[in-house]
Amino acid sequence: MELLGKEYGYVAIVVVVYCILNMWMGFQVAKARKKYKVYYPTLYALESENKDAKLFNCVQRGHQNSLEMMPMFFILMVLGGMAHPCICAALGLVYIVTRYFYFTGYASGDPQNRLNIGKYAFLALLGLMICTISFGINSIRR
Questions:
Q1: Which residue among 2, 71, 95, 119 has the highest number of C-beta atoms inside a 10 angstrom radius?
Q2: Is the CB of residue 131 less than 8 Å from the CB of residue 84?
Q3: What's the pTM?
Q4: 12 and 82 in contact (C-beta within 8 Å)?
Q5: How far is CA 129 from CA 29, 82, 134, in A?
Q6: How far lies 111's CA from each of 50, 100, 102, 139, in Å?
């Protein structure tokens, strides 16, 4: 643990909190599958086959988009957190809160609602990118 410092624990905790959010979103998709009668292995419902396709697809898409962004979020947290653990942990929490609102806004059935607060997730990612670039530059200079 001496290698990373005790503050890096905050980074680890924030990553786990995102995992919990992601699991919750997955449960919401499972509930929507039952409610709107969209069975596995169907990823997205077809409007020609299901009158509630748009409602289900909004829930599914909110989760899918979060899955698509997860690798970038994790790598930026892990690397940027090596140099700036407290800043990255704080930015990570901002990202998680905005992703929650992105998902719930999308799941409302109106895709535009995902952007009310969810659009600010990219500011957190930008901050994480800056922290990771700082880590990279400082590593090269050593």
A1: 95
A2: yes
A3: 0.93
A4: no
A5: 30, 13, 8
A6: 18, 14, 9, 41
- The string of pLDDT tens digits covering residues 4-40 is 889 999 999 999 999 999 999 999 999 999 999 999 9
| Distance (Å, whole) CA 109 – CA 88 | 32
Contacts within 8 Å (CB) and 24+ apart, 127-130? 127/87, 127/91, 128/73, 128/76, 128/77, 128/80, 128/88, 128/91, 128/92, 128/95, 129/76, 129/80, 130/80
Helix axes 53-83, 85-107, angle to 10 degrees: 180
Structure tokens at 102: 């992105």
pLDDT tens, position by position, 68-122: 999 999 999 999 999 999 999 999 999 999 999 999 999 999 999 999 999 999 9
